[in-house]
Amino acid sequence: MLPFLRHCCAFGSHNPSTWRSIFQTPGREQKHIRSWSAHCSANNEGASVLEKDNSQKKLALPDNSLIDARILYCTSPALGHNKEAHPESNKRVPAIVDALEKLELSPKHRGSQVLEIQNFNPACLDNVARVHSRSYITGLEKAMSKASEGLIFIEGTGPTYATETTFQESLLSAGAGITLVDSVVAASKLGPNPPLGFALVRPPGHHAVLQGPMGFCVFGNIAVSARYAQHQHGLKRVMIIDFDTSSSSRLIRFPIPVFCTFYLHSYLASYPGTGKINEVGQGDGEGTTLNLPLPGGAGDYAMRCAFDEPDIILVSAGYDAHALDPLAGLQSTTGTFYMLASSIKQLAKELCGGRCVFFLEGGYNLQSLSSSVADTFRAFLDEPSLAAQFDDPAMLFEEPTRKIKEAIEKAKGIHSL
């Protein structure tokens, strides 16, 4: 099905929301920020969108580190960006990091195979402004003064919230992706088997639109990195696959064709109302967006059918298709994500010189999220999946194979595949 992606160079439309008024909730919430591998100031110090910075500072990574590494990753847990009982919580990245340590997939246990890049820089104004309007960026920064008095909600964006650290922490998460693009591209020039990158960051980004946030997402992390890859490294055709289950895995629509995107999601996850199978893009991007809404109950069979031949550089990696996830209504297993990571890695090696960076998007059950990301790491390392240790087959029910086949055949017909 996905040879289609080999010939695409643009992506299609989205259903944009606008940056509207910000409503402050009563009361003042105390926020406790602890240090992490990459530090972000809680009082809006550091990188400011009011200060123009035309260059992204480079990290001095020794060539031997890049040659030996199999995985490069950055963590940006946005500990201050948090609302109690919200599914997109500040426990997500720490849960993943804990799982990597417990399963001996961290640098402590893997030496030069697995490298965490620490103390990376936030994204600067120019990089973010290639994706988002400057009025949105400056408006969000100014809104931090309201957030300092308590949690705020952003009207018209789904349940998207902000705290006094949201702006800086969102810049940091976008900067993590840029750092990994730099590092993976540099490594690809040193040898035929560069490491894969993984931005373990939040807030997620794939719902964010030109003029504002949407659906838990603040800045379009993967879109910022894609534009940066074009501008800084001359990678004109940036391919993106999004396997998050939300129906509108929408990046910013650029005025020139730059992407091929493939969206795989659940038709039950209707937020925010786009992502229908007959939506194929508009303008320069017409015919280059492929949406495949899956029926409720779809799981491993569906994923294996759809991802037979992916073509990828950047991946919006959402783990909310897991059977334990509370939001999506699908029933993939940890092994599904191992299969996806393994296939994408191989195709990146064959088609993209091995340059590939994953970006964390959804996934709201801490157990399934952390085990699935850990199994993704094992796929990157060419080690056997541990899915059998994590998943109970009793939690699954029979998949609607007929509806899955019909959805795939309909998508093929729309795109003449």
TrEMBL record:
InterPro entries found in the cross-reference section: HDACs (IPR000286), His_deacetylse_dom (IPR023801), His_deacetylse_dom_sf (IPR037138), Ureohydrolase_dom_sf (IPR023696)
Domain Histone deacetylase stretches: 86-378
Biological processes per GO annotation: epigenetic regulation of gene expression
Superkingdom of source: Eukaryota
SUPFAM superfamilies in the record: Arginase/deacetylase (SSF52768)
Cofactor: Zn(2+)
A single MF term (Gene Ontology): histone deacetylase activity
Gene Ontology, cellular component aspect: cytoplasm; histone deacetylase complex
This protein's name: Histone deacetylase domain-containing protein
